[in-house]
Design brief:
Length: about 425
């Protein structure tokens, strides 16, 4: 008995999924013991765009409701994206007792828990492996692979576009705007890159995997988020002097006072494995109470890696439909998610990298040191590389471990100083992994 699939959306993810379902059909059938058949495809451009050859008749429509209502379809793939129409598609499919597979990180981060409850009430499944880290099966790892452990912290590079931009700045010493333009030409960045370079995409992914890891109901709004727009080539020069590099780092860490969540550019030691993650790749480092450290690495995006995750979810759900499953495992790895408010980022304590651009004159270091001392922030080092332009002189102060609130309060005062060319840039120096 075959299992029929309806695919809604033929963008990058939908097209990649369709290609794999058709090109790899024989292998999929051998693994399942039955065929996984594409019964319907839906796209606004379905009447004008070329589609692959199908072995059997396929419904082609621009109306997603025809797919969701199709009596033969067992599983709906939502590959539309966004939180508007995509939510309608998923809710309607679940109400019609059809399982859903999605790669929609934004919607799952905001509404995933309630959509799972809707699926559970209707006796069907909701699978979302492809919503985080593309080809890395991180959901399966947290939900099943290390389910017996208790996660205490995780560190991730979860946005391939930002990682490509940062590693290209590091390699070529080009400025942010020129590397962003290159990323857009290569298809890594959208015409509007805000979700990637401002950390919003990474925050949505961190909300999802943190819910799996810690069993708490989290949304992107719970996560302190900064982007990478202000990173300059000079920051990598100074970071290298400190034997560090810079990555857009996602952190979820359990402490005595609660869960600390952040997405922000951070300095990490060059010898760590995360520092070797370059280009459009993703990686997640997980530390458990019992199993200790595990590491997961792979393509974080792209039609084929993400399509593999979607098809793998389809195969898992198809097995359940074909053979039955008395107890479904929640895609969030916990029977119920707890209501939780994360710890304020201002309570974090770490050494910080402070980069200044100033119009050079006597007494600058003394002035800055006095303000930092006033806020009980100790100076670890002062770094200044030779520069000819005294009207725009960059230099760096690294601090001893300090509370984020103290750093913020000091920077508010420092921003008023007349010798600054721009506000200071502050990044934590993350260690311990």
């Amino acid at each position: 008995m075959e299992v029929a699939v309806g695919l809604i959306g033929l963008g990058n993810v939908g097209s990649g999924t369709l290609d794999i379902l058709l090109e790899n059909a024989q292998s999929i059938r051998e693994k399942l013991g039955f065929p996984l058949r594409v019964a319907a495809v839906c796209s606004r451009s379905v009447g004008t765009r070329p589609l692959p050859e199908f072995a059997e008749p396929v419904l082609r429509t621009a109306d997603w409701r025809e797919v969701v209502s199709h009596p033969e379809i067992d599983i709906v793939v939502e590959a539309v994206g966004g939180t508007g129409t995509a939510r309608q598609i998923i809710e309607e499919a679940l109400r019609k007792h059809k399982s859903v597979v999605t790669a929609n990180k934004e919607l799952m981060a905001q509404r995933g828990a309630e959509l799972w409850n809707l699926a559970h009430r209707n006796g069907v499944n909701l699978a979302m492996e492809a919503s985080v880290a593309g080809g890395i099966p991180i959901h399966t790892v947290l939900r099943e692979g290390i389910a017996g452990d208790r996660v205490v912290e995780l560190y991730g590079i979860l946005n391939g576009t930002s990682n490509f931009i940062l590693t290209e700045i590091e390699k070529s010493q080009a400025n942010f705007q020129s590397v962003l333009a290159e990323a857009q030409q290569l298809g890594y960045a959208e015409a509007d890159p805000s979700a990637d370079v401002d950390g919003l995409d990474a925050a949505a992914k961190l909300a999802i995997i943190s819910a799996l890891a810690f069993g708490e109901r989290l949304t992107p709004a719970d996560i302190y988020t900064e982007g990478i727009r202000r990173i300059m080539p000079i920051d990598f020069e100074y970071a290298h002097q400190l034997k560090h590099t810079i990555r857009l780092l996602c952190i979820a860490r359990q402490s005595e006072n609660g869960l600390l969540l952040s997405v922000r550019p951070s300095l990490i030691p060059q010898q760590t494995i995360l520092a070797q993650v370059k280009g459009a790749y993703n990686a997640i480092w997980i530390r458990g109470s019992y199993g200790e450290d595990t590491f997961y690495y792979g393509r974080g995006a792209g039609p084929k890696p993400t399509g593999v995750a979607v098809v793998s979810d389809l195969m898992k759900v198809a097995r359940e439909i074909r053979f039955g499953s008395p107890e479904r495992v929640s895609p969030f790895a916990h029977e119920r998610l707890g209501e939780y408010r994360p710890q304020e980022i201002s309570t974090q304590s770490a050494p910080y990298y402070l980069r200044f651009r100033v119009e050079d004159k006597a007494g600058i270091i003394a002035t800055l040191a006095a303000i930092l001392a006033k806020h009980k922030i100790g100076i670890d080092a002062v770094l200044q590389l030779p520069r000819e332009d005294w009207r725009d002189l960059p230099f760096v102060i690294t601090t001893e471990p300090a509370r984020e609130k103290a750093i913020r309060d000091a920077l508010i005062e420092i921003r008023e100083l007349e010798f600054l060319v721009e506000p200071p840039l502050a990044m934590p120096m993350v260690r311990g992994f």
